[in-house]
Write a structure and sequence with these properties.
Length: 234
């Protein structure tokens, strides 16, 4: 944890007895089994685990993209189960930034338009939203490609635009699925430095799912998802 973040920092994310069972096959599959997790403001937690252990399932529940079978997720004191779909969408826009494994950029929009989108959805004027988006694109080294559409960008460049889009609203919590998967070492280091700055500057909390040992080791804590529960790694 950064030096400015004491153990007294407010809890930003809480999972209590979180369970997710899929009922789609011939047999029920319990992927998360009464899992507990607490992440404080400004804290960065890496989640590791073998393929199929439930990392993406967990991220989807944390972001309110899926509902748990049992237990609950509380973000900034708000239980997600207490929000209906429309309110949940607004809450997500207000508090959470996502970086998905497959970046989900809109093909017909330029990089700066994609990065500005969460602010436009929030009701901000296009010009102000794009100005702010340009600042973040600069920080991820993408300002010179701002007018290009995703189809004209490399995988790593698209990933950086997705990261800019996740950070543009100054979220309280950022959820990342393999954020540096497509990036070379130098660019990955730039993104890591930006995450450090944000954790310190704005007490942003990060939950990062990754197979990248270096990325995991860079975080404040590493938790391994195993048999449906999180186990702290030394
Ligand atoms: N919608 C679904 N219906 C049924 N089973 C599912 C569903 N989504 C995921 N699963 C199963 O749940 C388990 C966990 O999947 P999940 O994608 O969360 O794993 P993961 O740890 O993110 O894997 P990876 O590292 O390979 O991305 C897997 O066995 C998967 O097949």
């Amino acid at each position: 944890m950064s030096e400015t973040t004491s153990t007294q920092a407010p809890v930003m994310l809480q999972c209590q007895s979180l369970t997710r069972t899929y009922n789609e096959g011939p047999q029920d599959l319990t992927v998360l089994d009464s899992l507990d997790l607490e992440v404080r403001a400004g804290e960065r937690v890496a989640i590791v685990g073998s393929s199929g252990s439930g990392k993406t399932t967990l991220l989807n529940l944390l972001g309110g993209l899926d509902r748990p079978t049992d237990g609950r997720v509380v973000i900034a004191d708000q239980p997600l189960s207490g929000l209906k779909e429309a309110a949940l969408g607004q809450f997500r826009n207000r508090y959470i930034g996502f970086v998905y494994q497959f970046h989900h950029l809109l093909a017909e929009f330029t990089a700066v338009e994609n990065a500005a989108l969460p602010l436009i959805i929030r009701g901000q004027a296009k010009k102000a939203a794009e100005q702010r988006a340009m600042q973040i694109l600069e920080r991820v080294g993408m300002a010179s490609r701002a007018d290009h559409k995703p189809g004209e960008l490399s995988g790593g460049e698209r990933q950086r635009v997705a990261i800019a889009r996740a950070l543009v609203t100054d979220p309280s919590l950022v959820l990342m699925d393999e954020p540096t998967g497509n990036l070379d070492q130098t660019t990955a280091a730039t993104i890591l430095a930006l995450m450090d700055e944000l954790a310190q500057e704005s007490a942003c909390a990060f939950v990062i799912v990754t197979h990248d040992v270096g990325l995991a080791a860079h975080q404040d804590r590493v938790m391994k998802l195993d048999a449906g529960k999180l186990v702290a790694q030394p």
